[in-house]
Design brief:
single chain, 688 residues, alpha/beta, Rossmann fold, Aspartate Aminotransferase, domain 2, Aspartate Aminotransferase, domain 1, 7-stranded mixed β-sheet, elongated, binds pyridoxal-5'-phosphate
């Protein structure tokens, strides 16, 4: 075999279907056979309760590492580790194990790690053997018994490994006692290979001798090491990158730039971190585009989804209903401001807005005011990318091209709250714009159907934060002139601003509210358009009157999405997320102050967990850095090198961590953003 055999095999985590299945024997035999192939093998026994496994491995494989290095955690009693070490008044710390492992790994081509018991054995609170195996980034080898009763245990171990995202290198059968081989002994390995879809490495026969040399000789022809070689993955990352470039058209992306770059391939996640295919960890600084709420792989949401998937993944709301959709609607009515009583489901923010616009328009058609057809929106607004929502969008860059496709609306001038026109000041200028809405309504209220706004924070425009009182004024004017107020809380909803919904900051109840993004905790696409009884009643009529809302998407009210959303809300309650948010928001605000030390930072805007840092060429004149310089993109790329994922909006660096971030993670986010801005803008300031 080739010299790089050891590298091809890599580190292996030897676990068992139970205790006493012969993990140490299997580890010894595998290790010695690898050594025979010229592989420099190391061994690691992170946790041991009683016995002499580590010592046997050390002497059997004649490794130079000291026993303390091979086995950092030893407890004298033969108990489950979490009890054995508790009784020693010691806590097993993953960091300690990791550090010890790194040392051993550094010295060998491949390391055999022997677990203790099976994958679900607890090591500490919330930390199982499977978590450790994953952290050490080793493939696992399952040691199983060959006799009757082993299929179930082994398949369960395989399933568990899959659930934890562990890669299975293969299964080894070991016969620890002298017994007559039965039919089960002969047929079980093949059955497990087939039903578990795993490589079978072979069966170690009963070994009468404890002598490592004799043991190895006895199993040499029964174990097939070649099967341990990874299916040649020169680099999984490179392969995925190549296929991505070959087949994916990315959203909002100039694909020429994309294919010239090396995309980051995300493989999994853990809490507030994303992990790429090479095992690098990144803090998710933008909540995976503003959706993740309580972190990734949140146990409550994970469990809810698994339970729901065992019932039904999808059933339609056209002609039928389903439990999660009903329960979620009830819950949404409960948590949204009083007066919002009916829930219409769809799939994403844009459709939630489409639905709201059609409802508002048709409401007046249905109720005898057919002239009220105008939809009013604000400059700098963003409501999604489908043509209806683009029609009420106010960001020129996104909308200019589609000008001729979109329908006519009324656009209300509204400031970006950073650059007031000459001679104007904030917040007065923002209120002047509201006054202009009043002037408009005085003349045109009889043809104005609705006003749509992003309440308090205009996200996509660059985290424009409104002065207090604007939303309330809009509500008053809509009431006075009989105009439907639609609040698009797709971005601001579910805690982002510090309250569950942004309109609660000003005690405002809209007629129609659009929700999406965080509604499922960031797990699945789901949206809701929630309306008052009054709007709903405008559609309730005789079938023949054709006042029905003619709208519906195929996946409306999908049970799996609704189950995720219910679990999301359960976490909000259980963990008192909103109550605990204030302190974190303060911590974030405090940390943001230092950004003004950077000359290129013109404005730092924050509402709760929504932050925009605007970079400028000159702070005095507020002159922008030319967009072609792609300064935002470059800052985010630099932040990636500091272990944080960000995504800009033009020259505005957005920070929007999941609500579950810790203070330490907030600090990590701020430090990375600060350094990245510093590195990139050093040469930009004052250039233009
Ligand atoms: C993201 C967003 C949308 C669009 O949501 P999609 O799910 O991307 O269609 C609409 N409105 C606001 C305020 C948003 O932030």
């Amino acid at each position: 075999m080739k010299v790089d055999f050891g590298r091809q095999i890599g580190d292996l985590f030897i676990t068992g279907t139970g205790t006493d299945v012969g993990k140490t024997v299997a580890t010894l035999c595998l290790g010695r056979l690898l050594q025979e192939q010229g592989v420099d093998v190391g061994v690691f026994k992170p946790v041991q309760c009683a016995g002499d496994d580590a010592a046997r491995l050390k002497s059997g494989l004649a490794v130079a590492d000291s026993l303390d290095e091979i086995n950092p955690y030893f407890a004298p009693e033969p108990l489950s580790p979490h009890i054995a070490f508790k009784r020693q008044k010691r806590i097993i710390r993953p960091q300690t194990i990791n550090a010890a492992f790194e040392k051993i790994r550094g010295r060998h081509e491949a390391v055999l790690i022997e677990g203790a018991g099976g994958l679900l054995v607890p090591l500490a609170k919330d930390y199982l053997m499977a978590d450790l195996a994953r952290e050490l980034n080793a493939r696992i080898v399952i040691v199983a018994l060959p006799g009757l009763g082993t299929i179930n245990h082994t398949l369960m171990t395989i399933q568990c490994a899959h659930q934890y995202g562990l890669e299975i290198a293969g299964v080894v059968f070991n016969q620890p006692c002298r017994e007559q081989p039965t039919i089960a002994h002969e047929t079980n390995p093949a059955a497990i290979g087939k039903f578990g879809d795993v490589p079978i490495l072979g069966s170690i026969p009963y070994l009468a001798s404890q002598d490592p040399g004799k043991m190895t000789a006895a199993c040499r022809e029964h174990l097939h090491l070649k099967k341990l070689c990874r299916p040649r993955r020169v680099s999984r990352t490179a392969r995925l990158q190549r296929l991505d470039k070959a087949h994916i058209w990315h959203p909002f992306t100039q694909m020429r730039d994309w294919v010239a770059d090396e995309p980051l391939v995300i493989d999994r996640a853990d809490g507030n971190e994303l992990i790429d295919t090479d095992g690098n960890r990144y803090l998710d600084g933008i909540s995976s585009l503003w959706v993740t709420v309580h972190g990734h792989r949140q146990p409550v949401i994970d469990r809810a989804l698994k339970e729901q998937i065992d019932r039904v993944a999808h059933s339609t709301l056209l002609g039928l209903t389903n439990a999660p959709a009903v329960q979620l609607a009830r819950k949404l009515v409960e948590i949204t401001p009083p007066g919002l009583d009916k829930v219409f489901y769809s799939d994403n923010g844009s459709t939630a807005v489409e639905v709201a616009l059609k409802m508002a328009y048709q409401y007046w058609q249905n109720t005898g005011c057919p002239r009220k057809t105008d939809l009013v929106h604000l400059a700098n607004s963003y409501h999604g990318d489908t043509l209806g929502s683009v029609s009420v969008g106010g960001i020129d860059l996104f909308h200019r091209v589609y000008r001729k496709l979109i329908f006519k609306t009324v656009r209300l001038d509204f400031p970006d709250c950073y650059r007031a026109p000459a001679g104007k000041e904030y917040p007065a200028y923002a209120f002047e714009c509201v006054d202009r809405f009043e002037q408009h309504l005085k003349k045109f209220h009889d043809r104005t159907a609705a006003l749509i706004v992003e309440p308090l924070v205009q996200g996509a425009a660059g985290m424009i934060v409104w002065p207090e009182g604007i939303l309330r004024r809009f509500r008053e004017l809509c009431d006075e002139y009989g105009v439907i107020l639609i609040t698009d809380e797709v971005a601001t909803g579910f805690g982002r601003t510090g309250r569950m919904f942004a309109c609660q900051h000003e005690g405002v109840v809209p007629d129609i509210m659009c929700l999406a993004k965080g509604i499922t905790g960031g797990y699945l696409p789901l949206a809701a358009t929630i309306v008052s009884q009054k709007i709903y009643d405008g559609f309730v009529a005789d079938y023949r009157d054709q006042k029905t809302l003619f709208h519906g998407h195929t996946y409306t009210g999908n049970p799996l999405c609704c189950a995720a959303a219910l679990a999301n809300l359960e976490v909000f309650e259980k963990e008192r997320v909103l109550q605990r948010l204030g302190a974190k928001i303060k911590h974030l605000s405090k940390g943001l102050r230092v950004f003004y030390n950077l000359r290129s930072v013109g404005d730092v805007r924050q509402k709760g967990f929504m932050v925009g840092i605007e970079l400028v060429a000159d702070r005095q004149t507020k002159k922008s850095i030319p967009w072609e310089r792609q300064v935002g993109v470059r800052v985010c790329r630099a932040a990636r090198r500091h272990g944080v994922i960000l995504r800009p909006l033009g020259n505005v660096i957005v920070l929007m961590p999941p609500l579950s971030v810790s203070r330490a993670e907030i600090d990590r986010l701020l430090t990375a953003a600060y350094q990245a801005i510093d590195e990139v803008t050093e040469n930009e300031y004052g250039e233009y």
